[in-house]
Prior knowledge:
Pfam families (chains A, B): Beta-AFase-like_GH127_cat, Glyco_hydro127C, Glyco_hydro127M
Radius of gyration of chain A: 25 Å
Largest sheet of chain A: 10 strands, antiparallel
GO molecular function (chains A, B): hydrolase activity
Mean pLDDT of chain A: 94
Keywords (chains A, B): Hydrolase
Number of helices of chain A: 13
Helix content of chain A: 25-40%
Shape of chain A: globular
Oligomer: homodimer
Number of strands of chain A: 23
Protein name (chains A, B): Glycoside hydrolase family 127 protein
Organism (chains A, B): Occultella glacieicola
Amino acid sequence: MCGASCPAHSRGDRVSVDTTTAGAGPKGPDGGASGGLPVSPSAGVLRPLGLAEVRIVGGFWGRRQHVNGSATIVHIEHWLEREGWLGNFDAAADGRLPGARRGREFADSEVYKLLEAMAWEIGRTGDEVVQGRYDAIVARVAAAQEPDGYLHTNFGRPGQDPRYSDLEWGHELYCFGHLIQAAVARLRTRGDHLLVQVARRVADQVCEVFGPGGIESVCGHAEVEPALVEFARATGERRYLEQARLFVERRGHHVLDDIEFGRAYFQDDVPVREADVLRGHAVRAMYFAEGAVDVATETGDEGLRDAVRRQFITTLARRTYLTGGMGSRHQDEGFGEDFALPPDRAYSETCAAVGSVQLAWRLLLSDADPTWADVIERALFNVVATSPAPDGRSFYYANTLHQRELASVPEPDVVSTRASSSLRAPWFTVSCCPTNVARTFAGLGAYLATADDHGLQLHQYAPARIRTRLADGREVAVDVDTDYPHRGTVRIRAAGRERQRWDLTLRIPAWVQGGAVISGGTRQDVAPGLARLPVDLEPGAELVLDLPVIPRFVWPDPRIDAVRGCVAVQRGPEVFCLESVDLPGGADVSRFQVDPGTPPTERDGRVWVRGVLGTPTDVAWPYRSEPAGTGDPVAVEVPLTAYHDWANRGPSTMRVWLPCDSGSV
Amino acid sequence: MCGASCPAHSRGDRVSVDTTTAGAGPKGPDGGASGGLPVSPSAGVLRPLGLAEVRIVGGFWGRRQHVNGSATIVHIEHWLEREGWLGNFDAAADGRLPGARRGREFADSEVYKLLEAMAWEIGRTGDEVVQGRYDAIVARVAAAQEPDGYLHTNFGRPGQDPRYSDLEWGHELYCFGHLIQAAVARLRTRGDHLLVQVARRVADQVCEVFGPGGIESVCGHAEVEPALVEFARATGERRYLEQARLFVERRGHHVLDDIEFGRAYFQDDVPVREADVLRGHAVRAMYFAEGAVDVATETGDEGLRDAVRRQFITTLARRTYLTGGMGSRHQDEGFGEDFALPPDRAYSETCAAVGSVQLAWRLLLSDADPTWADVIERALFNVVATSPAPDGRSFYYANTLHQRELASVPEPDVVSTRASSSLRAPWFTVSCCPTNVARTFAGLGAYLATADDHGLQLHQYAPARIRTRLADGREVAVDVDTDYPHRGTVRIRAAGRERQRWDLTLRIPAWVQGGAVISGGTRQDVAPGLARLPVDLEPGAELVLDLPVIPRFVWPDPRIDAVRGCVAVQRGPEVFCLESVDLPGGADVSRFQVDPGTPPTERDGRVWVRGVLGTPTDVAWPYRSEPAGTGDPVAVEVPLTAYHDWANRGPSTMRVWLPCDSGSV
């Protein structure tokens, strides 16, 4: 496997230009035609593949990519226009600020995340209509840039707060980060553009103001850190990396003011190398960790990378929901203490899951540990896929694991002020999640597979067309055909004109029992982790990966107090839930208790569990001198719903964790 | 029993002046010498007794009253001065606002709550030194009043927001409410005063601005509603009652703007008569409910009173912690949904418990239902008494039932910005709780007993000296001697010069099993509820109430998901908890599992439970395919601490709800 010694991934005094930046820098093994890489480290065990190298061609994720491209991106444009967040840039150019400004202080960032999503979508599809709309938006953004490069619609003009006067809450560098990420996406798909020039001037201004001798602080919301490293990778400008390094090292030294939630809220409580676990605002924590890993990768700082890896491992062991969701506090959108994971108050912000995917992907490229692909799979299926409605035009911001009361139905044409308590809403006062879903789905193909000197690694299973070349020129060309996760059969077929001779490494998810690879009539058992197989396939020949997708109970660690005495149901990577709409008479889910002694079954395309429906007795005081039983239990068998599909049939009460019938435990 | 037909409690077109308002209005049966009544309805089944009629003379509450008078009130004065919240009034008088203003928009209210506490303290003790300090503060407040009666240091001056421009968050009427309550306390203890004149002009201004034809809205934080009714009672001015009625009827009709937390936050979601349960911000909900009951009582509106009573009953059945604490959400300091009562995120604000005491007291006076006295006992022992440290100089704002991590130790000289996560703090940015504790403790004697035409009712048990007269002139003079709740023996001794011949009604708490009254050598069993006994005692003779105070397990309703599989321990009215400082080696409380089959015992003055101490195994992912057992369980017996005494030995992890050892269930 390649690593620091691999010429394609070497480190030098100057950051190497990423080889997949279209129209910028030297061509790499893929001839710069990767089609775009969401993350492009200059070192690491695995080499990421771009959007032209891995195309999703259908299935669970293909449907979502299609809806994203055909509906969600337009939907976002509509709302950005309608709410005036795009208009803020026009107002800036026309000198109508601050009077004409609309939206929150970070509204600019949603425009940038839309541009990033559009760039990946253009890279994926080559859609010139989208390109035209993209150009028009970029022109409006560019017109708002000030002569010195600064570009923010909420600060610095007469009548506005001065630039950088509120680093705790102002989100200036956060917005710049998303602008820069959008420019990186453009550089890696179609190459240079007005947006890239705008981003360069913004990044230069940041380096000037926050570099050595400048403001020795950081932004309350991390994001500029990974963006600057990626921009350094995409442009070859080392000073962007150096500025990111400064930001990463500064945070944690109490450079920001203390606030009600404590400095942990913006990870300014403890220096990154000394922290034990991710904490504070979950999205901030994720984005910052991404930036730290990126800095570590580009500077060869293994201590820094290992610190973040250790923190993420602890976070997964103690602060993560069954769905992969992170953040158990509404108050500060933040992590709770270890094992404080209430299902009913799960915040589990969609953006935090996007961040966990991005962080896990960076670690996967770095060390090839299949754990990270498990993390990505879990978060994608159970949080990111849960957020958008099937039509891609409304979203969950928070992703609760227990809905106690029927949610309100949002007006289709009204901005939601709430992160929770309603069904999926078309837009939010703080609308970070829809744009985050859009940019993730548009670039999703890139998270499926990687290569190294020896062959191909498949991390996620979806119908896909994979075409790349190894460093030595060998063609890798396979088509993946599967109905995963509905079924666990994955067919991998040699698709090129050449004979496929290389090593195939398959991630076997941690939940798999009884998995196997069938090749040339031979069945070989595979266990969770990595299965590495020498491949030697004539064009058209195939091998089959069989991952038995059977519903099963899952028990929580006894330290997770909030779900003591409960079980959940998973089927493959998907978490299931009970909705009241599936109970007799629409009974509230609180009345159901599951029989954990009877495993869940599958019938008529649904997953079923057995248990009892009780009728609790109303009491004046709910604390008694003896345990209360289930009132009038009636035996029932009830169907469950894949969690990502919940609330698609109108308001329901819902729970992922099912209390065990005490009579049957 | 007296009621609407009782001359002492009659209603008329004009609200009757309360008979215990010193120096104002006609003398009632107690000759105006009650010494002060915190609440004085003009109708109701029970007649409250004032601070001169019921004096606490020691014991659990006597110690706290002493600390409150000797330390807490001075402590509050110190911090109000130091933080400039008192100085705001000087700055207003000197024309130095808004520049010189300090503290939050509701800082004025803390000065008023201090004045209320001082008034009760003066009424209780006659302390002329306190009276002098009181006069000095009132003079500073009065100097800030504007010519038209308006008095708020945060609004209306050039450079400040205009008066009443932010009813959702401005807290103007809230502050006025506390000013008026302070004036009521003064009227009912020593009579007219400069403060009363100030409050009259404020109340008149409120009636003018918010009366018919004025602003048809309410304050985002209820408080002026009960204050205006009480002021009407204390002054005889019916228009104050009418204004309160308008405020009560208006709320719930969406007169305030919608906010992120929804209009339920300030009870503006549903009209008071139509609501099913208390909801939204818990303190706001309580104060509003008090005001509604007060309006209902003074206008004879039984439908309104019954609506609130029904809401409170449902709130107790579904939205109240074992401690009596209310509010399970940090985000909005609010109630969660039914049975959403996480112990670790219990907000259980001290002020909400004060509000629940005030609401329950109003309902008790109205209908004599002993449930309300149970509510008061529970909240006083387990929330209000938990807030202050033994020295009365630091406080809990939120009262969690489960401390997962060691709390930070607040600097003794620094204002805490946090409502939770530290030990008791001396002062807060939002410092409503210390002043609420102070006014409650100063007036606590009045909550112990009531009278009616037939005799005396004892609701709370504390060493006390009770002296009053019934409507027909019969003397009621008893001394109560008890070490309650440490011991359950309550001695009630005839103390006057006359033979005591009247009916004694004793509240038998709901937790009592095996209670009895011993009188004249006869033991008579009593059950939870009311025990009504004809008393015929020569001076010096006594009867004894025996309430067996034995530690016992308590099981939660199965719908309270967050404590499924757990038990708690109570002893009499006191809730107990486990602190890590009492575990071998200071082990974290998460490692203990209780044996629910072995009842708790008492030894060496402490309560003990048996169980096991486990050593959980660290796992990479805390959701598994089979239940996890207790790691290496070691049998232990551990002592518990009365919850109100927790964290008095430094930082500890703590839990009220103890997970049951699955091996022993």
